[in-house]
Amino acid sequence: MRTTAELASTPGHPAVKAGANHKKRFEGWMVDALRAEGLRDAKTVAKKILVLLDGAASAMLVHRDASYVIAAGEVAASLAEKRR
Fold first, then answer.
1. Which of 1, 42, 63, 78 could form a disulfide with 34 if both were Cys (CB 3.0 to 4.6 A apart)?
2. What's this model's pTM, rounded to 2 decimal places?
3. Does residue 37 contact residue 46 with C-beta atoms inside 8 Å?
């Protein structure tokens, strides 16, 4: 995220492409993991969890407070429970 933000004016930069590819592979892994746990609509849940992860990481860095990550984990768990 940080590299992409720093290179926002150069979308074709190899580092931006590498970051995007990594995010896409991680999202695919998460979809597979959620499906393996029997979640319905795993793609939607994975997207929501990824938004939580990115937001929590940003908030934690800005505020220097790990409770944002803990809160995101709690929300992610509730999303997963609702989709079983």
1. 42
2. 0.83
3. no
pLDDT one-digit tens code per residue, 66-84: 999 999 999 999 998 877 6
Domain boundaries, the chain: 2-82
Q: Which two tokens stand for residue 20?
A: 């995007």
At a CB cut-off of 8 Å and minimum separation 6, what does 19 contact? 1, 3, 4
Q: Is the pLDDT at 15 greater than 80, yes or no?
A: yes
Whether 39 and 55 have beta carbons less than 8 Å apart is answered as no
Radius of gyration of the chain (CA): 14
Question: What backbone phi and psi angles, to 5 degrees, belong to 40?
Answer: -80, 150
Joined tokens for residue 37: 């746990």
Residue ranges of alpha helices (H) inside 7-41 are 14-36
d(CA 51, CA 65): 18
